[in-house]
Fold:
Amino acid sequence: PGEVYDNLYKRFNPVKFNAKEWVSIAKAAGMKYLVFTSKHHDGFCMFDTKHTSYKITKSPFKRDVVAELAKACHEGGIKLGFYYSPPDWHHPDYRTENHARYIKYLHGQLQELCSNYGRVDIIWFDGLGGKAEDWDSENLLKMVRRLQPHVIINNRAGLPGDHDTPEQRVGRVQTHRPWESCITICRQWAWKPDDRMKSLNECIGILVRCVGGDGNLLLNVGPMPTGEIEPRQVARLKEIGAWLKRWGETIYGTR
Structure:
């Protein structure tokens, strides 16, 4: 129930979260960039926004995860991206007669994400089903590009953006426009105990087919409630990295 779900943050305390460790794992996997969920559809913010108290800094954890991860990415040489969901099931003005107020809230949060955390390389919207006018996307994207001129923006805010985002499948061969498949390492986006994990062969097969179709792969990993990435997933990521160390010239920078 909403009443229960919306209060879970009062117990949220991922005490073993270590941003440097996450970046180290990403690098060991051969990854060149990282996209972090700053706010999902449920409206809970993983950063210290001034626009709501429904955020991680009001949880027992109290720390700004986005700030720590941004610092670790910048220091570790991994490009940084933020996933942000324009839909928001928690905000009182969302999809009401006061939706204009919600749009102001959304723009305010993107301004924070693009102003407070140094260089941001990717903004990854997840507003599937929404139209550009639902988020005033014309002005939203202008603001994002003004604050982060080199940023790459995906196609999920009602506008084409810079690249396509086939989900849970390898995209078709497409050389006229960039694309990136977003695919989970297990079955679910969020962590689930004993979720079936893809084999090394499956992961490599997906990566090779993405690159062979002129695309990129965004491989999703859902952290555990402790803030750690599950050890067996870390092991799989490192196996992918070992494969890339040997065969990376067939993947990186290829068309």
Residues 119 and 184 are 26 Å apart (CA to CA). Strands lie at 33-39, 79-84, 122-125, 152-153, 180-184, 216-220. The first helix runs from residue 2 to 5.
